[in-house]
Amino acid sequence: MSWLIENFGTIYVVASSVVGTAAVIASVTPTPKDDEWVAKARKVLDMLAFNVGNARNR
User: Fold this and answer.
1) Confidence (pLDDT) at 55
2) By residue range, what is the domain housing residue 45?
3) CB 38 within 8 A of CB 5
4) Per-residue pLDDT tens for 12-43?
5) pLDDT at position 52, please?
6) With contact defined as beta carbons under 8 Å apart, do 26 and 34 qualify?
7) Measured between alpha carbons, how far is 30 from 52 in angstroms, rounded to an integer?
8) Is the pLDDT of residue 54 over 70?
9) Is residue 31 part of a domain?
10) How far apart (Å, rounded) are the C-alpha atoms in residues 51 and 32?
11) CA–CA dist 45, 29 (Å, integer)
12) pLDDT at position 25, please?
């Protein structure tokens, strides 16, 4: 647990980079299937950032 707390910043940066890269790929490709993966990755990132309830991005 202490490793997670100590490295939370790095984990968050990596997760944000993965979501950002996936969002670029999803916007460039015409199929909606990859858009579903980006939505799932964003949900995980929102959960890690404690974006719940009224703090959610709309």
Assistant:
1) 58
2) 2-51
3) no
4) 898 888 888 878 877 777 777 767 877 887 78
5) 62
6) yes
7) 30
8) no
9) yes
10) 25
11) 22
12) 76
